[in-house]
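Chapter summary example.
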Amino acid sequence: MNKEAQLINRINRNFMDYKAKMLRLNGQRIFEKAEEIAAYTQAHWYLTVDHHYEPEELDCLLLFQNPLEVVTDKYQNEVRCVNDVLELIVRACNKQDGFGNHPLMKKHGEPER
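The structure predicted for these 113 residues follows.
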C-alpha cells in the first residue's frame, strides 16, 4: 500500500474512533463539543478528499498515531482564532465589502424596506 493510501486509511480510522467517542456523550455534552466536531469533520474531509499530498507531508503525518487529531488541534488553535476572524470582519467593514448575505441593522429613523 502506498503512503497516501496508508495515511488516508489511518485518518479514516481516526475519524471513526472520534465519532464513536462523541456518540457516547449525552446531548448537552455533544452540543458543547459542536465546534470541535465541526473542526474534526472539516479536517477529515480536507485530508481525505480535497488535499493533494507532497511527499514530505505524507512522511510527517505518518509519524503520528492520530494525524487527524494533530491537524484538527492545530486548525482549532491557530486557524480558527476568533481574534483573526474579528480582524477580517473589521477590515471588510472598513471596505464595506463582503457582507451581502448578512442584513445590516437599520439606522435610527430609517423606514422599513
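To summarize the output: The mean pLDDT is 85.
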